[in-house]
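USER: I would love a firmer grasp of how sequence relates to backbone shape in proteins. This is the protein in question:
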Amino acid sequence: MTHIIAEPCIGTKDTACVEVCPVDCIHPRKDEEKFDPEKMLYIDPETCIDCGLCVDECPVTAIFPEDELPDKWQEYTQLNADWYKENG
């Protein structure tokens, strides 16, 4: 299973989650050129090890285990995966 970053991240892009990720699966990072134009961060579903460290670090409660993602944000599962297909 993976974790999903959802709507509350839009416009926030707090990178505390990036700092605690042991497998570097949250992007774009502040030092990447895609950081500024992106409106949110994304989790790579192929790399995420489901450790959950990022969940507690998110100041806007934008990260959820895939099976706990609120129904209103279900499209973010595909948005996260698509970002890595296009930018990975």
User: Anything to note?
Assistant: The chain is about 25% helix and 10% strand. The chain has one domain: 3-87. The beta strands are 3-5, 26-27, 42-43, 63-65.
